[in-house]
Amino acid sequence: MRGTMTRVMATGTFDILHPGHLLYLERSRALGDELVVVVARDINVKHKPRPVVPEDQRLRMVSALKMVDMAVLGSVTDIFEPVRALRPDIITLGYDQYMDENWLEGELRKRGLMARVVRISEREPCELCSSRQIVEKILKERC
Q1: Shortest CA distance to 9 belongs to which of 61, 85, 100?
Q2: 50 located within any domain
Q3: Whole-number pLDDT of residue 126
Q4: Domain contains 84
Q5: Number of domains observed in the structure of the chain
Q6: Residue 33: which domain range?
Q7: Which residues are annotated as a binding site?
Q8: ∠ CA(140), CA(142), CA(143), 5° rounding?
Q9: Are 128 and 18 in contact (CB under 8 A)?
Q10: pTM for the full model?
Q11: What whole-number distance in Å separates Cα of residue 103 and Cα of residue 113?
Q12: Mean pLDDT computed over 31-57
């Protein structure tokens, strides 16, 4: 920790921003004094369809959110690079992020990084609270 300041790091793709993203970031921000967000690089998104919105635009959108103090693009080669550079006290994962908390904490410790991992399990109850749902609705109604 930086004195009494707690830095929280949230990560994600943030493709087609929606209320679910906002809830995740609001809950993440509430855990500390500063929220830094790592936006996934286009090339690194392999666990789901590639983002519709390019990484530079996703970064710009996330940076503009009032609860976000800083947003950066992730590393192309090493997911731990931004963690080493920004030294968060807490790393949050969204309810649907595929990363296992125990594995992540173990990997952080191996690298001498002491951030605590917190899963934000709350979900926003809305019809279009995922980028996939938004894309599917657009395809259904507009194509």
Answers
A1: 85
A2: yes
A3: 82
A4: yes
A5: 1
A6: 7-142
A7: 13-14, 18-21, 96
A8: 75
A9: yes
A10: 0.90
A11: 13
A12: 91
C-alpha to C-alpha distance for 20 and 127, rounded to whole angstroms = 10
Domain annotation covers residue 1: no
Look up residue 31 and give its two tokens: 């855990």
Convert the pLDDT of each residue in 59-96 to its tens digit: 999 999 999 999 999 999 999 999 999 999 999 999 98
Q: Which two tokens stand for residue 56?
A: 């530079």
Q: Tell me how far apart the terminal alpha carbons of the chain are, to the nearest angstrom.
A: 50
Does 1 score more than 70 pLDDT? no
When pLDDT is averaged across residues 98-115 and rounded to a whole number, the result is 94
Asked if the structure places residue 2 within a domain, the reply is no
CATH code of the domain covering residue 28: 3.40.50.620
Which stretches within 51-100 are classed as H helix?
A: 55-63, 81-86
> Residue 102's closest CA among 84, 117, 92?
117
- Report residue 69 as tokens: 């103090």
Residue in the block written with tokens 């997911």? 79
Binding residues for ATP: 13-14, 18-21, 96
Average pLDDT (134-141) is 88
Task: Give Rg (Cα) of the chain.
Answer: 15
